[in-house]
Specification:
By secondary structure, the protein is an all-beta fold. It is built from no helices and 3 strands. The chain has strands at about 5-10, 20-30, 50-55. A 3-stranded antiparallel sheet has the order 2-1-3, with no helix packed on it. The protein is globular, with a radius of gyration of 13 Å.
Length: about 70
């Protein structure tokens, strides 16, 4: 599999992804590999907020997110 460019955005409720919302600027993920985004640890999402991801190749990336609800 070839490399894919990926960008992640934190989008507040009702918003859209823009330059001020970038969490991970365009990074390259190699085919059949895993990227662990340690820089996103301790993020807090409010109700309605979202994590948006964009890839240079559709259906080429799977994103798994885990966390706590309190």
């Amino acid at each position: 599999s070839s490399a894919v460019s990926v960008s992640l955005y934190y989008v507040a409720s009702g918003g859209s992804a823009g330059a001020s919302d970038v969490l991970l600027p365009q990074i390259t993920v190699l085919g059949n590999s895993t990227y662990i985004a340690n820089e996103l640890q301790a993020m807090v999402f409010n109700p309605g907020d979202a994590l948006w991801g964009f890839a240079s190749v559709g259906s080429a990336v799977t994103i798994t997110v885990s966390g706590f609800y309190f």
